[in-house]
Request: fold
Amino acid sequence: MSSTTDQVADFADLAATTLLRFATAGSVDDGKSTLVGRLLHDSKSILTDQLEAVEAVSAQRGQDAPDLALLTDGLRAEREQGITIDVAYRYFATARRRFILADTPGHVQYTRNMVTGASTADLAVVLVDARNGVIEQTRRHAAVAALLRVPHVVLAVNKMDLVGYEESVFAKIAEEFTAYASDLGVPEITAIPISALAGDNVVEPSAHMDWYGGPTVLEHLETVPVSHDLTACPARFPVQYVIRPQTAEHPDYRGYAGQIASGVLRVGEAVTVLPSGRTSVIAGIDALGESVDIAWAPQSVTVRLADDIDISRGDLIAPSANPPATTQDVIATVCHVADQPLAVGARVLLKHTTRTVKAIVKEIPSRLTLDDLSQHPNPGQLVANDIGRVVVRTAEPLALDAYADSRRTGSFLLIDPADGTTLAAGMAGESFASQARTTVQADDEGWDF
Reply:
């Protein structure tokens, strides 16, 4: 094995063993923030002054014990209302792994925030109140996790202390959720009975549930296998900036700067520039001011090509042996995140990696009904928090991978061209949604691409 291959392997192993990105989700008052606070508190990942501040606020409210939810509910409005509004990111570590945690809101109107928090997650913790069981918002969060291809889902059945720690209650909820999430295509589901308030099975095993022999939440987070090996995917290099110093020292230097989205780039490799389709060979790679023979995701580098090709921001450099297909007809599943509806015929901007193009929504074939996973055909529009299939026609070709193959180059945003508002987050290609399409009607208003 060559030394450069060893470097790539060592980098992938380091990422896989030391970092886990995970998101929490659940309905209102299911205890997400309390669970996160318990994780931070019991794993000794909070500072003394932070705990003292929480104790002071809790005492002002007349509470006997510190309200650990305040460790994540940082906004003033969140503390006043006792709810989570925005995504709260927390960074902590144990002896076994580092963590980036996204605590997402439970209100239906904030489902868009869960999309943000889970979009880069390797694992999602979905909380359920043991008294209420699986409800519509639980199904919504499971659907979002499945759409975003989150590989691991933990069902945390919380507030077991309020149902007498009954095994039958836990078993019924776990069976219902597992069946639903499996139908969505979630590859791995782990159910854990907990009490975030009392600390049962969060960091330490519960003394009240001897019938449960599985891991605690933290133990599972520390040991779940997670791969960050972006080098296993085909190389994708979206160009962010063209570097032309035109100085006496570098009169002919032309480099293309950006972050490698996936895969490995090597000097001497034949590449194709998309969407133009022009081909060349990598003549050099510059990283941190030094020339290197190899670079891999997610490094930021400057690539130099052997041929003088017209390349600008938004172009994609990929191996000629395995380039993505280009298309102007994007078929995808979207999570609508704006207050304003997304209707058939809407003029939008589509942002994919570093490329932004004009587009029009040609069809909305279906909207997902979360109760039974049925498809409501041809709804005409999607409103806030809807999940549906869309067909978008772009003004220029895009080099899109299927989201199932690459979360980085298979995702995109739909943006309102008038004010820059993000309308929807899209996942290209297959999903659990229906692939049925209707005939695309011609557009007569000047945006018929």
Q: What stands out?
A: Confidence is low (pLDDT under 50) at residues 11-17, 75-85, 433-449.
